[in-house]
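User: Hi! I'm working on a homework problem where we have to compare a predicted structure to a textbook description. Could you give me the structure for the chain below?
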Amino acid sequence: MKVVVAGQGYVGLPLAVRAAEVGHRVVGYDVDLERTARLSAGRSYVADVASSRLHTVLDSGAYSATADAGALVGYDIAVITVPTPLRDGVPDLSYIESCAQTLGEHLRPGATVVLESTTYPGTTEEVLVPILEKASGLKGGVDFLAGFSPERIAPGNTRWSFEGTPKLVSGMDAKSLDVIKGFYDGIFQTTVPVSGPKVAEMAKLIENVFRFVNISMINELATLAAPLGVDIWEAIDAAATKPFGFTRFTPGPGIGGHCLPVDPLFLSWKIRQELGVPFRFVELADDVNRRMPDYVVQRLSEALGKRGKSVSGARILLLGLTYKFNAIDLRNSPSARIAELLIDLGADVRGADPNIPDGDEIKLNVSRVDANAEEIMAADAVVLLMDHPQFDLPVIEKRAAYVFDCRNRLSGPNVESL
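Assistant: Happy to help. Predicted structure tokens:
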């Protein structure tokens, strides 16, 4: 089939390449000209898609990247994988709406459109389908098919492969579900059909709310355990020996990425709009998680004070700037807030991260350095925000004057854990 994957980012590119590998003719559509030029040259910017894989599907003609909407003509299936950010606490569906308009202008009878972008329940049937109908003059469920299948991308996760992660699928009607399931059956090892788009949309949000709330709970416990004289990490290890009724979560300097800081608030917003009541768990969890960077800076300030130093004028080295272990990007990373707070307090802040592309450190307004022995020794404080495998942990333990460890990976008289 001719497959259009609209949006060639961290969600769309892996899907597009995989669909090409299993035999579809795939058009990777993105309005970013620089991005499509890079993809056309065979240079991947997504860690889960090696450039060698991209070259293979390009050379075979199974995949092409373009910003030209004219290339969408005649598609059999189109999958929307565009961003859905929050703007001042309100879901911004403008990317979905714009993409739906473009796809609708090229929609032909018998074609199928699938939404993968995370959003609130009702978006597929109440937003996507009406735009497609208006732009095409066709009727959903009669002339064309539509449904929702949430992405489950986990950048840097080596345990679960893209195709090995079970895929939820839904359709606006039985025929839509049948076609959409058939398409994803050829890409994923397991597909899980549900009764309709609203259920699939809610399921995706439940997945993220579960993590969001539990991370906030353990983060708040971490801030309370230290004053109580309890090692939160040892307590978590002890609790995790229970073989049932417990899922291990660990504290950190905050949450980041394109899902956790955003998706649960989609549901909270929708509940307030539709029901007029708050989603109290999510709103409380958001408050706790947003405060974690401030807590890190508070703990760091107290530790430096005990050593006769002030944050103002202190040389502080932040290790691991990405939002997630082994990830390569800075989206909503708590390191940005931590760096901002330290700079405002007058600190000389430097950052080391072997994963992020050159130039991305400007987003944090910090000087980028290597995590070598010289930098570690020169710092008044080293803050381990993300424990990437490239970091030489024994060197940090041995050389650093003081370490604030947000990941519980280091030990010694000069180390203090979150």
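For your comparison, note the following. The longest helix spans residues 197-225. The longest strand covers residues 2-6. Good luck with the assignment!
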